[in-house]
């Protein structure tokens, strides 16, 4: 009689605890999911972005796609303020020189990468990468500001700068990686 009482008591206890434990487990999962989503809500740059296009258009000239019509690239922003940016020509030009006297050139020229920490000024629509390392000598130890807009899962970096006496409009378009969510 004692063994059946113990089995029955254990079964009743399990049934009584099952619902509260499920609720607790789901609450923890919900909290963690909200915390990850909250990072992105507070900082919409957080996540992995895939490069879709990389176009420079000099004033009065045709667009230039220095990394090809289907460039390969990842921009990774973490919630704790780290960033890693990699851009590669598709297909790569493996015969390109591996040195360049221009300190703003990527070495090799078909692959650019840099990493560091970042800060965001939402009022101005700019993030600044504080470069710690990379293969662009002129970037090392500098701050690299980038004006941006985010529309849904599309990140657009767009600015106009001077090259010599000519204005060049630069546009980089990236799509958020949503598969890992």
Structural descriptors:
181 residues; alpha+beta; 8-stranded antiparallel barrel; 8 strands; 41% strand; globular
Detailed description of the structure:
By secondary structure, this protein is α+β, with helices and mostly antiparallel strands. 23% of the residues lie in helices and 41% in strands. The protein has 1 helix and 8 strands. The longest helix is centred in the N-terminal third of the chain and has 41 residues.
Give the tally of β-strands: 8
Measure the end-to-end span: 52 Å
Helix fraction bin: 10-25%
Characterize the quaternary organization of these chains: single chain
Number of helices: 1
Mean pLDDT: 81
Kindly estimate the percentage of residues that lie in beta strands according to DSSP.
Answer: 35-45%
The gyration radius over C-alpha positions equals: 25 Å
How would you sum up this structure in a few lines?
With 181 residues, the chain is an alpha+beta fold. The protein contains one helix and eight strands, in the order αββββββββ.
Topology summary:
Layout: H1 2-42, E1 47-58, E2 72-77, E3 82-88, E4 111-121, E5 126-134, E6 143-151, E7 154-163, E8 166-176
Antiparallel strand pairs: 1-2, 1-8, 2-3, 3-4, 4-5, 5-6, 6-7, 7-8
